[in-house]
């Protein structure tokens, strides 16, 4: 029996949700049915009572016909026949007639008329009431109509299966009666008119109510935080405010309660998972402190579960877009509540990955990553990325990846690409690829008692025992996860990621998910098993040759192929010449417009293809790529030119014989063919890097510096050497550093204003010395008053004009 009990699986969160919902629905239905039945009984009794009173007042009881006077027709006919046969009384004497009457009165029950229901010797009740006679008559009962039964799930007992049924509530038969009674009650009840409030009064009243609710929430939250173990029951009171029914403040109060509960759970939740107690643990006697802790943990888990159910219900209400009977929250407010609920779920997903019901939160969040609402989708994707980045062990990441993989497959790969782009944030650097990874960190095995007895003395055994005990305690104190467990989780996670990627490559090659898949393969390609290399390279080459991919997607294919070959693929004899040719052919698609974003991927591809595989690259190929890169640097943005020139500098250091491109004399036979797409046969050795002279006059100072450095042969020392901040950075880092995405020039442009003079001339220092003396002399002269006669000057001027 114990083994069977242990084998039973713990019910999942969905089953618990379904069970709780069914129970709540049954309870609600039973309660409503009971109320309706009691109300109907009460109404029927009242109606019968009113009818009886009306009948007693208005009507009189109808006297019933005496049953003795009722004589059947057959008996009348028989008596008539007997009378015809009998002698007439007129022919009898008076003495004989009197004798017959006396005998009739003294006759026994044998000679008595049996048609009468009363005995002869009993006197008649003269004053018997007519209603009493009416009550003595047997009544005919009306047969009740058969009620329709609902068949429920049967119950299994020791004796067997017991069927279960329930009467179907008959609402149609008594509908008219209930409506009539409700109309009567409405007529009787006169409601007091509610005084109408102005808009300002309504806003003041709402503000007052909201302030009271806020104070109540703050009081409960502070009490719980001050002593969580003692005040854990107040969580239920705070959670009950999620059902706020006041339409004025319902939405705001619910949002505040959701956020408050989320912060409370983040603060009071322990750093371990709470498991349910076994029967043996419940029956054992424990201390008061332990019992208090257990009650706190049970209350915390139950309230946390109910809180998650409330959040899920808020999201479902928004999705279904159906008003509830209470009509407290409008349809427009559903989205606001749902956004707050989703934000709380995302916060709990990131902050409590170790606690109970984390997998259930994942099941709620993952479908919302593909939601039509952009804000909710981005919120969930960011939360998952944050979880991946901070998950060091990999347990939570594995759960999320499993759910995402199943969701993508269930939707037939019709999901948002952002879902798969979250895989790029996984912290996976090594997996169990090689067989000897198990031998890297073998767990230390302690000696058995027999081994100690054979090899050690008694004193040594004693010291060895103490040493082993100390080592065990130190391991428990560190509480660090073993490398083996971490590698195992990472391997399982990466397998799920690759399964998702390979399914899309196989079944949905024209899906919008392909760029995300190729980007993910490019990042994790060095961790793929060697068995899949040949097939994967064939698939990538087929995708490139199909022509259905965009330029950036084809670059991801090239990058993935060379990541595969740079890792474990070194042992394979695969010639990737077709990938070199494709990149060389498509380099000129880069320009200063939209494709400038692809320069970063090109720089990464060049690093993997040429620098890391220097032993497999010929000199002709290196010369062709250097020449094409210098030509490309003329037509892109400054940050792209810096990155390309930095790559050219690395290639010139990696392949020293490429310095012949700095000489204008041709080497060998042939003419350089720049339009040829084959880097091996374009005769790049017969050309020179004349582009560097044009780049030396570039408007960007860093481009000028790099061009001058390359023209000098890329020296590491001397006047033409680069500064450390330029020489020690990679090409991708320089590309990002001098990016112009923020519409700023880096380094900033110097101002063209001339330098300001240190001294300023003031007053008469601006004037010449002679002019200054003349001014002083005129100022010192005494002014003589004379009449102002302008006419003489006017006459002389007119005379001159006339002449």
TrEMBL record:
Residues 213-307 form the Nucleolar complex-associated protein 3 N-terminal domain. Residues 554-707 form the CCAAT-binding factor domain. The keyword Coiled coil applies. Residues 29-51 have a biased composition (Basic residues). Residues 52-78, 160-174 have a biased composition (Basic and acidic residues). SUPFAM superfamilies: ARM repeat (SSF48371). InterPro entries: ARM-type_fold, CCAAT-binding_factor, Noc3_N, Nucleolar_cplx-assoc_3. Pfam families: CBF (PF03914), NOC3p (PF07540). One of its GO terms (cellular component) is nucleolus. Residues 1-93, 160-186 are annotated as: Disordered. One of its GO terms (molecular function) is chromatin binding. It is found in: Nucleus, Nucleolus. Residues 449-487 form a coiled coil. Its main location: nucleus. One of its GO terms (biological process) is DNA replication initiation. Belongs to the CBF/MAK21 family. This is Nucleolar complex protein 3 homolog.
């Amino acid at each position: 029996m114990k083994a069977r009990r242990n084998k039973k699986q713990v019910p999942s969160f969905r089953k618990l949700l379904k069970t709780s919902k069914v129970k709540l629905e049954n309870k609600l239905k039973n309660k409503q049915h009971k109320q309706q039945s009691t109300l109907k009984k009460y109404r029927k009794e009242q109606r019968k009572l009113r009818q009886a009173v009306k009948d007693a007042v208005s009507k009189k009881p109808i006297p019933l016909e005496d049953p003795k006077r009722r004589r059947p027709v057959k008996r009348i006919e028989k008596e008539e026949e007997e009378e015809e046969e009998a002698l007439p009384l007129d022919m009898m004497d008076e003495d004989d007639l009197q004798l017959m009457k006396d005998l009739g009165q003294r006759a026994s029950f044998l000679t008595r008329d049996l048609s009468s229901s009363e005995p002869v010797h009993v006197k008649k009740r003269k004053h018997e009431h007519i209603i009493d006679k009416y009550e003595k008559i047997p009544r005919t009962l009306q047969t009740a109509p058969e009620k329709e039964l609902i068949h429920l799930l049967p119950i299994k007992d020791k004796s067997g299966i017991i069927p279960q049924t329930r009467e179907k509530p008959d609402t149609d038969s008594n509908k008219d009666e209930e409506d009539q009674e409700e109309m009567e009650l409405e007529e009787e009840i006169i409601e007091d008119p509610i005084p109408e409030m102005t808009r300002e009064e309504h806003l003041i009243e709402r503000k007052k109510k909201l302030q009271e609710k806020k104070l109540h929430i703050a009081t409960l939250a502070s009490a719980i935080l001050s002593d969580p173990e003692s005040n854990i029951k107040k969580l239920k009171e705070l959670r009950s405010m999620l059902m706020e029914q006041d339409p004025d403040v319902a939405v705001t109060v619910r949002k505040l309660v959701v956020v408050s509960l989320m912060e409370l759970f983040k603060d009071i939740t322990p750093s371990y998972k709470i498991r349910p107690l076994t029967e043996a643990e419940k029956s054992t006697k424990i201390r008061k402190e332990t019992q208090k802790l257990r009650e706190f943990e049970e209350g915390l888990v139950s309230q946390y579960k109910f809180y998650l159910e409330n959040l899920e219900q808020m999201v479902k209400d928004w999705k279904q877009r159906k008003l509830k009977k209470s009509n407290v929250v409008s349809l427009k407010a559903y989205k606001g509540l749902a956004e707050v609920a989703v934000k709380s779920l995302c916060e709990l997903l990131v902050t409590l990955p170790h606690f109970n019901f984390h997998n259930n939160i994942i099941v709620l969040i993952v479908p919302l990553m593909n939601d039509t609402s952009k804000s909710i989708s981005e919120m969930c994707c960011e939360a998952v990325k944050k979880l991946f980045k901070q998950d060091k062990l990999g347990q939570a990441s594995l759960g999320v990846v499993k759910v995402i993989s199943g969701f993508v497959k269930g939707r037939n790969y019709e999901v948002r690409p952002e879902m798969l782009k979250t895989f790029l944030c996984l912290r996976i650097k090594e997996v169990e690829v090689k067989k000897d990874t198990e031998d890297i960190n073998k767990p230390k095995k302690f000696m058995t008692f027999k081994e100690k007895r054979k090899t050690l003395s008694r004193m040594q055994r004693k010291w060895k025992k103490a040493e082993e005990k100390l080592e065990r305690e130190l391991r428990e104190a560190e509480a660090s996860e073993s490398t083996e467990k971490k590698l195992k989780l990472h391997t399982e996670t990466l397998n799920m990621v690759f399964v998702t990627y390979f399914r899309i490559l196989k079944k949905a090659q024209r899906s919008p998910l392909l760029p995300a898949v190729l980007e993910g393969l490019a990042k994790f390609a060095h961790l793929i098993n060697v068995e899949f290399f040949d097939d994967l390279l064939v698939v990538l080459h087929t995708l490139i040759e199909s022509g259905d991919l965009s330029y950036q997607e084809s670059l991801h294919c090239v990058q993935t192929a060379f990541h595969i070959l740079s890792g474990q693929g070194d042992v394979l004899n695969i010639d990737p010449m077709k990938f070199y040719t494709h990149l060389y052919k498509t380099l000129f698609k880069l320009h200063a417009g939209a494709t400038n974003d692809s320069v970063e991927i090109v720089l990464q591809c060049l690093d993997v293809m040429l620098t890391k595989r220097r032993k497999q690259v010929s000199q002709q190929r290196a010369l062709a790529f250097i020449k094409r890169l210098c030509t490309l640097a003329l037509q892109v943005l400054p940050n792209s030119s810096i990155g390309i020139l930095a790559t050219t500098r690395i290639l010139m250091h990696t392949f020293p014989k490429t310095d012949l491109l700095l000489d204008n004399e041709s080497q060998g036979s042939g003419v350089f063919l720049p339009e040829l797409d084959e880097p091996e046969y374009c005769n790049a050795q017969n050309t020179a890097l004349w582009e560097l002279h044009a780049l030396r006059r570039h408007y960007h100072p860093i481009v000028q510096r790099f061009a001058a450095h390359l023209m000098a042969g890329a020296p590491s020392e001397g006047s033409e050497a680069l500064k450390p901040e330029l020489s020690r950075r990679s090409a991708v880092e320089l590309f990002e550093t001098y990016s112009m995405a923020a519409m700023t020039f880096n380094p900033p442009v110097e101002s063209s204003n001339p330098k300001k003079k240190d001294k300023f001339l003031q007053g008469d220092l601006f004037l010449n010395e002679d002019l200054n003396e003349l001014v002083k002399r005129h100022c010192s002269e005494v002014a003589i008053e004379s009449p102002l006669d302008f006419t003489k000057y006017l006459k002389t001027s007119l005379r001159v004009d006339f002449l």
